[in-house]
Amino acid sequence: MAERALEWRVEETCLNAWPALREVLLDGWVLRFSAGLTRRANSANPLRPVSHVDLRACEALYRRLGLPTIFRVLSLLDPLVDERLAEAGYTGEGESCVLYAPIEDIAAAPDAEVRLRDRPTPDWFAAMSALQNHSSAQAAIYRRIVGQLAIRAAFAVLFDEGVAVALAYGALHNGLLCYESVITDRRRRRQGWGRRIVSALTVWARDQGAVGACLEVEAHNAPARALYDAIGFKRELYRYHYRREPP
């Protein structure tokens, strides 16, 4: 029972850490709409261990906003949900892991070179856009999504020779820290910047009273998995994948 409570507490934290621009609650699901930027912010997500899905109602809402219907299917759900979507022609993609660790198990140390702010600055957004290779339209949507954050957050950036080489933010909810938008300069790998920026956010969260931390990572992203394992994320709490409506 305690394990299942933690899983849904982590899921709630992750949803709040990456909000959507619009949401509709529908029979145990939250349908999220964010102009198409990322599947997480543009998919139907379960709010509890549901065993059903109203395909017709969901599809009508996504079509109304000009978006494909996508379901985020957690391993916490009854397998019948995934089976029904597959039978309806929905294709699977984006297998991902949700990792968790007690806050004291995560390697963390103060880092004077990592700058932390309680709000994202225009320069932070610009650096994030550059490292994510966003178009101007995507960058604008990203700013709107982050601007929807209602929970406490810290925005981190690390510079090298005056250039932003790593960014991320951490959001706190119900005693848990969720890391979001962790990115480093892909042209300068293996410099330890990702580890440093995650570490600095962990120190911040400890000071705020966090007792645990979580994050979502693509299952086949070996470099990211190795980074998080090295800093203390040894526990895979659950998985999810997406189901996308057929063309």
Account of the 3D structure:
The chain has helices at 2-17, 55-64, 79-87, 122-132, 136-147, 193-207, 222-230; strands spanning 22-26, 29-33, 44-46, 70-74, 91-102, 114-117, 153-160, 163-173, 176-184, 212-218, 235-244. By secondary structure, the chain is of the alpha+beta class. The protein has an eight-stranded mixed beta sheet with strand order 4-11-5-10-9-8-7-6, sandwiched between helices. It has a three-stranded antiparallel beta sheet with strand order 1-2-3, with no helix packed on it. The chain starts with a helix and ends with a strand.
Secondary structure blueprint with pairings:
Elements: H1 2-17, E1 22-26, E2 29-33, E3 44-46, H2 55-64, E4 70-74, H3 79-87, E5 91-102, E6 114-117, H4 122-132, H5 136-147, E7 153-160, E8 163-173, E9 176-184, H6 193-207, E10 212-218, H7 222-230, E11 235-244
Parallel strand pairs: 9-10
Antiparallel strand pairs: 1-2, 2-3, 4-11, 5-10, 5-11, 6-7, 7-8, 8-9
Roughly how many Å is the radius of gyration? 18 Å
- The proportion of residues in beta strands is 25-35%
Mean pLDDT: 96
Percentage of residues in helical conformation: 25-40%
For the largest beta-sheet, the strand count, sense and barrel status come to: 8 strands, mixed
**Widest beta sheet: strand line-up:** 4-11-5-10-9-8-7-6
Low-confidence regions: none
Instruction: Report the structural category.
Output: alpha+beta
Shape estimate:
globular
Order of helices and strands: HEEEHEHEEHHEEEHEHE
Tally of helical runs: 7
CA-CA gap between termini:
40 Å
Count of strand segments: 11
